[in-house]
Write a structure and sequence with these properties.
Elements (H helix, E strand, L loop, with lengths): L2 H13 L2 H9 L3 H23 L2 H17 L10 H19 L5 H4 L14 H20 L3 H12 L4 H8 L3 H27 L1
């Protein structure tokens, strides 16, 4: 067996474009879809976790997304990047999960492990509690935003998508994305300011 020839397809899969890998996957080459997954899974998981707040739910949604993307691969029209198309699937699944858990407490969904651990052990507990409280307050304020504005805010400021990607995912003009984001940031600032005033009282 020629080892170099045997390893060449894997090397080509790593370097191939998304479109080339999609074509090969549709032609019945499972390794091509595996290469797509390896290429995008890390970023996808990070962005899903930013949406749902904890790793377990994010990993479950990740698996659902990858499965749906695989079975719907023949519907990918190439009008957006493959990652944007796949993320839209993940986003829709996330919205569905949120609807099912609408009554869940914001504090329950807060993941304390996302707070940075102080280097000084003497203040570790107090600092982590303070960080967790800030995270909970921010999540609570975001959850109170008008749904369309909240969605754009999360996609832009938490997931880090650009205006074009957000417009493709939500099927709205870029101008609408910008106006909703501007309004959402103003609303969020007002909500956080009100919460601070209530705490002082």
């Amino acid at each position: 067996m020629n080892v170099q020839n045997h390893s060449k397809p894997a090397d080509e899969a790593v370097e191939a474009s998304d479109d080339a890998l999609i074509g090969r996957a549709l032609a019945g080459e499972p390794a091509a879809y595996d290469s797509l997954v390896r290429r995008h899974a890390g970023r996808l998981l990070t962005m899903i976790r930013a949406q749902v707040g904890n790793r377990d739910d994010a990993e479950d949604l990740m698996q659902e997304t990858l499965a749906q993307a695989y079975f719907k691969l023949d519907t990918f029209a190439g009008k957006s990047s493959f990652f944007t198309w796949m993320y839209r699937i993940a986003f829709n699944l996330t919205i569905t999960k949120r609807r099912k858990r609408r009554l869940e407490s914001t504090h329950t969904r807060t993941n304390i492990e996302t707070a940075p651990t102080p280097e000084d052990p003497a203040v570790a507990v107090d600092q982590r509690m303070a960080d967790a409280e800030q995270i909970a307050r921010l999540r609570s304020a975001i959850d109170r935003l008008e749904p369309n504005r909240r969605t754009v805010l999360v996609l832009r400021d938490i997931d880090g998508l650009d205006y074009g990607e957000i417009a493709e995912i939500l099927a709205i003009p870029k101008g609408t994305v910008r106006s909703r984001l501007h309004r959402a940031r103003l609303d969020l600032r007002d909500l956080l300011s009100r919460d601070e005033t209530i705490d002082e009282d």
